[in-house]
Amino acid sequence: MIIRTLPRYRTLPLLLLVFCIPLVLTGCARDRFKATTDLEKFQKLQQEKQSENQQHQRQAYTPAMAASADSPGDYLLGAGDLITITVFETNALNAEVRVSSRGFVNLPLLDNVEVANLTAAEAEEKIEGLYAKKYLRDPHVSVYIKEHVSKRITLIGAVGAPGTYEYISRRHLLDVIALANGLKDKAGSSAFVTRHDSRMNKEITYLVDLEQLIKNGHMDQNLVIQGGDVVYIPEAGKCFIDGAVRKPGTYSISSKMTIAEGVAMAGGLASFADTDGIKLIRAMGKEGKREIIELSYNDLQSDRGDSIILEDQDIIFAESSASGIFSSGTGFSLGFMGTGVNFKNPQ
After folding, report:
1. Which of 16, 116, 216, 243 could crosslink 317 through cysteines, CB 3.0-4.6 Å?
2. In terms of DSSP bridges, do strands 202-209 and 238-243 run parallel, antiparallel, or are they unpaired?
3. In 151-302, at which residue ranges do the beta strands (DSSP E only) sit?
4. Cβ count within 10 A of residue 287
5. Which pTM does this prediction carry?
6. Chain segment 70-129, per-residue pLDDT in tens
7. CA–CA separation, 63 vs 241, rounded Å?
8. CA distance 277 to 258
9. What residues does 207 pair with on adjacent strands?
10. How far apart are CA 317 and CA 268, in angstroms?
């Protein structure tokens, strides 16, 4: 829109009209994204949301849990497994045998012994009891699972070759990721390993921090994978950045990304941005109700901004200031008909 300053008596109302346009546009945006809560209440709602997620028995994998999560003793023997049996009292009874399709192993003197659905420790006790009954006094038996074949592992999500794989031998998380041709570029920074806990008779999901494992080399995060485990690696979350930023759009969320980092990824605030009007919009609760908080640019540079980590589907909206729109969009021109004032909405 171009406004010419021809007759002097018409210049003032036209200039007022030009100044009112950004006021109206800015007011409409603020009504659409009006703050619904403050930072303190927002953080409380977020804690409640995290508590709901924990009800699904999802827990972070930590080194303190390694003894229970990594124990091979929970593995139940099944068809195809190759086991080595050592009888310490005599080498003549040692054997390396594969579990039959019906769950039996053939051992010296004992013939067929059923071991299906037993752990290695339970199989040891059973074989010791059978030898003690007829042949040996106080025997000591060791059962070592050389190949885990009866149970498979499943990899899904952002890996090169999702699918189900034979569990041939003891593997760690990095091993099975490599088995599936590695991570895709769009893979997120977490892995979820779901397994059946036979002691508690329920499914447990372990959350592994892939960034700590792969980028920072924290091998204590390299969870031992057991037969029957399902490994899920989701794609990186997305956030939407709009409003008075230089490059609005959809962006992938890296690990522990703050609002300030999201704004920087979108090229920073535009010249017409309201530095006191940066909104974060997030779905909260089971019904997906949206909560909106308003922060200033100074908040983002302080501990207040660092306390909020972006999540999948978050929206960052930077408000525009009326004065910023006016100063950025208003210009002057010289022409044959005289001096002109023009306004182009920078949004």
Report:
1. 243
2. unpaired
3. 152-157, 163-166, 171-172, 190-197, 202-209, 224-225, 230-233, 238-243, 249-252, 273-284, 289-295
4. 6
5. 0.58
6. 555 567 888 889 999 999 999 999 999 999 999 999 999 998 999 998 989 999 999 999
7. 37
8. 17
9. 60, 192
10. 12
Do the beta carbons of residue 312 and residue 49 sit within 8 Å? no
SS3 271: coil
Q: What is the dihedral of CA 72, 76, 78, 82, to 10 degrees?
A: 30
Does a structural domain hold residue 311? yes
- Domain shared by 241 and 321, yes or no: yes
Number of independent structural domains in the chain: 3
66 & 204 share domain? yes
Contact 142, 90 (CB under 8 A): no
- Report the alpha-carbon distance of residue 48 to residue 285 in Å, rounded: 8
pLDDT in tens, 7-42: 544 544 545 555 555 555 555 555 567 888 777 787
Structure tokens at 57: 């028995």
Looking at the domain assignment, is residue 94 inside a domain? yes
Give the CATH number for residue 214. 3.10.560.10
Domain holding 143, by residue range, is: 76-147
Bridge-based pairing state of the strands 289-295 and 249-252: unpaired
Start-end of H helices in 33-74: 39-54, 66-69
